Amino acid sequence: MSYTKIARATPFEGAPKINCASLFGASPKKSIIFRIPVTGKRPMKYSVRNLPSTLTLKENIITGTVENEGEYKITIVCENELGKIEKEITLEIKEGGVLLTPLLGFTSWNAFSHHVKQEDIERVAQRFVDLGLCEYGYSYINTDSGWQGEYGGEFDAVMPNAKFPDMKKMTDFIHSLGLKCGIYSTPMLTAWGCPDELASIPGCTVGVADHRFASTNGGIGVVHKEGNNARQWEAWGFDYLKYDWAPTDPINAELMRVELSKLSRDFGFCVTVNALKEYVEYWSKYCNSYRCNSDTLANYPNLLAVYDSYEMFSRYLNKGHFFDLDMLDFGQCDLWVLHNVLSEDEKIMQYSIRAFLNSPIQISSKLESPSDFELDIYSNEEIIAINQDTKYYRPVPVLSVKNEKTRVDVYEKALETGELAYMMLNLGENEIELSISGETTQLRDCWAKENIALGDVLKLKMMPHTVRIFTVSQKINVELK
Fold this sequence. Notes:
3 domains; 19% helix
């Protein structure tokens, strides 16, 4: 039972509600796949006004290319028997313009670990559709490590192992759902995440180790095959790369980024796992997301450690370039199962900090039989809208108290609607009371999807390890009593 009240997810009930960001980015002359995310009762009718002639709408999926750079305003229209809604969004077409808002999707690592199979990825993609997760804007289905075999094939690139018999078939299926596909690799000679049945799995370099770089996992080879592998991923139909090594350096990142930029497909680009602050000027300009924190485990000390990694990078966040707080770890997960001890409120907090602090949100659960509670966390359009907000305002702390067993952080974030959002975290071990005051007459409780009358002063009690997220029309003052 959670202290923080959260609303029930009803993706296929009610009047239509369009849940995409107001901005969608792509490069000129590169393929676009955009599934319109809309909750509401089915059947649903879709149409788009002012769609460029080179783009096509088929049911709820927009595909095609746009030839020239520029901003194209389109209006999405969705209608069912209970109502009709319109939303204007901007297609921003520019070189390297993909993932202008944080990635929303799935990644396989904590869910399946190195046991992952092609059938797992395809089934999860279908579950995203069947459970209604796509209607909240989740659009990337990413395969983490465990897919690799040996070098070979047309491009002399890493080929899949026997558990992935047909990569092109897999990506075609995912694209047919209106979703995009991600893949994993590394510049190291040996990748992390080797399946049990293999001795090792290769990365994007070969040969002897280049002594300019660290010796982690055999080091980075002197023969670079970034281009070989990038062309193979393009041929298979992938749209995103998680590039993983430590220490993460801009030299090897740039070698891969340049090869990805040459392809006929847009490629989202994430570097991990030790993207040090010393190189943040590069990460925050050339990488859609970057990580410098430990892998996510479903326990509270790990939650705090991942959260604490954010502060050092917070002021560098900008449009299309976000600090990654790593995947979610609750639900049905193979990895770290003995560490899966988060309370319901801690799970809400794990999601909240990613959503509010502009991190990518990647579900890593098998989704075979998710609980209602799990789906309710994943499927709150008001929380997701804060994550996808295109004002690109960096959340700023307006209250921070840390002493003995008390730890309280409150963040403020301006939104494109003109409202302000607040995240209030009780990270400590004591119950606290916050005093909230201001000229506004009410708060919007985003997790509960309810309005709360403010009056002159609202006293908000918060139990340990809990979070509340509100939106308001005017600035509020928050004090710890």
